[in-house]
Amino acid sequence: MAGDPPWPAPAHFVVVGRRWKYAPPPWVIYEAIVEDLERWLCLLTGELAPKVAASRRPDAILLRPWVDSSVTAVELLIEQDGYGSTVTVLAYGDVPQLPDETRWVRYRLGTIFGEALRVWVDEPHE
Fold first, then answer.
1. Distance (Å, rounded) from C-alpha 79 to C-alpha 59?
2. Is the model's pTM score more than 0.85?
3. Based on the structure, what is the number of domains in the chain?
4. pLDDT at position 3 over 70
């Protein structure tokens, strides 16, 4: 049921929390991440491809490992927002905040979900 936590928190601390709005409905966002991620996500040099560790159609996805070794998991919570969607992205870690040298993770999540995912879901695909 939407709104209920789909699984226990994957780590003790949320080290990054961001939220984005999209025009398409939740099922489009869910499918773009679960089924088409490799088609729109461009990995940085040395970056591991994320794996879907768990998911609950159409409102929750847990990705592991990803972005940086200090981030143990990235959780995506997808909600209906009018005709579109809102996605809350939570990056989890074992420490209360990211070390200074890994603060770029916030920017990286923005380029992925605030830009690359938005472009993908707003364009028609075959």
1. 6
2. yes
3. 1
4. no
Residue ranges making up the domain that contains 80 = 13-122
* Burial class, 103, CB count within 10 angstroms (exposed 0-12 / middle 13-18 / buried 19+): middle
Q: Cα 48 vs. chain centroid, distance in angstroms? A: 14
Q: Which two tokens stand for residue 3?
A: 């709104």
- Predicted local distance difference test score (pLDDT) of residue 25: 96
Of the candidates 43, 66, 62, which has an alpha carbon nearest to the alpha carbon of residue 53?
62
User: In angstroms, rounded to a whole number, what is the distance separating the alpha carbons of residues 5 and 77?
Assistant: 9
The answer for residues whose C-beta is within 8 angstroms of residue 97's C-beta and 6 or more apart is 13, 15
Q: What is the CATH number of the domain that holds 45?
A: 3.30.530.20
Let me know: does 77 contact 87? Beta carbons within 8 Å.
yes
